[in-house]
Amino acid sequence: MLRLAFRTLRLRKGGFIGTFIAVFFGALIVASCGGLMETGIRGNAEPQRLAAAPILVTGGQTFELPKEDPASLEPDDKRKFEDARLPERVRLDDGLVSRLRSVPGVSDVVGEVSFPLAAGGKPALGHAWDSAVLTPYALVAGAAPVAGEVVVESSWGAKPGDVVQIAARGKTESFRVAGVAGAPRSITQAAVFFSAADAARLSGHPGKADVIGVFTDPGADVETVQAKVAEAASGANVLTGIDRGVAEFPEADTSGTNLIVIAAVSGGLSVMVAMFVVASTLSLSTQQRSRELALMRAIGTTPRQLRRMVLGEALAVGLLATALAALLGPILGEWLFGQLVENGVVPPVLRFYQGWLPAVVGAGAAMLAVFIAAFVAGRRAGKIRPTEALAEAAVTRRWLTPTRFIVAALCFGGGTALAIVTVAVMTGPIAASTAGPAVILWAIGVAMITPGVAKVMTAILQWPMRLLGGIDAKLAVLNTRAGIVRAAGAVTPIMLAVGIATANIYLQTTQQELANQAFTEDVRADAVIGSVAGGLSPDLVQRIQAVPGVAGASEYVTSSVFLEKPYDSSDEGRPAIGLTASGAAATTDTKVTQGDLTALTGLTVALPEVFAKDYGRGLGDTLSLRLGDGVPVDVKVVAVTSQRPGFESLLLPAGLLAPHTTAGLAPQMLVRAAPDVDPAVLTERLREATAGLPVSVGDRAALVAAHDKDQAVGAWVNYLLVGMIIAYTVISVANTLVMATVRRRREFGLQRLTGSTRAQVLRMAGFEGGLVALVGIVLGTVVSAGAIVPFCLVAADSLLPMGSPLIYLTIIGLAAALALAATLIPAWAATRGPAVDAATAGSD
To answer: According to the UniProt entry, where is the signal peptide (predicted)?
Structure first.
């Protein structure tokens, strides 16, 4: 039977092109997402400025978070922990440098500090000259710097003796160029070197090191030394090889984690869509050969032989398609990665990887879909009794099997359960975490009963269509109802395309709009002062508050903190905002229900009402926090606030929160104009007051635009990956409809011989395509509503999502245009020749 299968493929090339296309694109998308996931798992970036040191030591960026409330456990209970990631850089004590020097096999140890600066309008990183050996940089001219001097790169065009203005930590200072240095390799981030004392002062973290480079004795085994260094630097990360890049570019590690999530969600969604599309395409291809299969049963072919033939044909096509997808998967994956880099989602230093595993996973997922679809199709054909085979080939097959019914019931039950959880349990934007999976469940459930639903909808729509299209529309309805299983094969991918696109895009636009609303409602600032060199000077607040027309000014710092007591199970921490007490009330619209924000000084916190209720804490109570860099601190509750559900943040003094961020300073300051002062006038006064300082002054529009830009990055990722999946389903829609229409060449020829003109046949085909598109659009809309409505009720207190109606109109317009084009173009081609030739032609 396998030989027969291959002969059948050779004689029926056109009948298997559709299956090939569906399998190929499914495997291609899964393989490319697998490459993104592998890149995220590895999270590798080539070390540049730290490349000379074979071993690098960095602070531990994770800590053990209890999985259960320690207060609820008995003394003899075994405690379970999970790793929680700290959002800010964890620095090392300089004392570790001297301890590591005594480790056997270590020849030298160098502490490294990095801080952002601007010199001559160009951004760069500042370092101590002692750490130049980590690259290594070598002097091209001049000498090493002492206090008040710097060494710059040769590309700067400066020479020893020149004076440069350098902005760092919110101030601008003059430094003399002591020397010019060059590196043996290309360095992404420009470097300026200071004396050790100046570097410690400008970094803002004296006595601390960002990274420690360890050099080994000649001939020493790096892995052996690494183990000894790890023992001496307990709790720190000890890195070698390609892993050292994370020490220089910590954003690569964070971006790698985000890339894993993106690839997992998109790849999983792609697998689900591929399963449906491949199964639908192969099922349609097998249905179109029902007469041939029935004849084979009638002449004595056994059910087992028939199943083997159908399975062999499908696997042969699948293997060819997946082999080609495995070759092209890395190309698509690298292109997707390049798009993510260009749009700022991942840093350019992150290295793209696509090994053999993603290709195997993509091929395996596609082949699994092929096997399941072929097994079901072959099993159905093999179960027909020979005496009923020919009759069965002429009528519509029974579509509602026990398996379909059970799967549909489970999926509808799961979708309903997720909707209930979304409405009853979730709050704010986090409701999207249940709304997203609900789309898939509703889609699977509807796909299982598409033939039945399509039949009911066709019966309902037949009267309006007959009124609009007359006899042509009547024939279209009759054809659709007679071939309802065939029509359902085209309806399913349209439903998937409309449902997935509508749900995911509107979920994203609603979340984006809610975030923008929450930000604009909470921030009352008329102007914003931003830093161009790593942060604002802490004494700038008093200077700005003294400017005429200023009603209030406050530093604005964002980070995340972890609640340790009372116990909080969140492994991502809680959002925290740092404010200046004297200007917090004027620049933010946070409603204070108890206490006063002017008390937000020292070790204090303003707690959102929902947290106060959940944790049983109020005014005067103490919370134990772990700040973003892992430093524990006890704070006193001095205010309770009411904030938009889902966007609650702990409010801390900027002076407490900022030093425990990576920058160490507030990145921006909010300024509120007095009631009788025009915001434009205030902005101009602020520019005059900050002239000569390394800051930028913008109005409220600039503040909102910057926030919108941050939100747009996350939205773009969703649009790109969802768009890729939708493109696949679009191809599948066209594929299915073309296969179904081309198959009907003989039918069109007979229709023309009985008196219909070619124009009438094409109009009938157009009405059929429109009916299929309409049914698919309605079902897709229902599927998307099953996820969108519960989410919007919780997040926006509305039944409708936020976003332009043009999005939905564009989606359904494209679906309708695609369905009509994929029906009319093949129908036009099938009716070009003489009717008698078409009527007497074979069915292929």
So the answer is: none
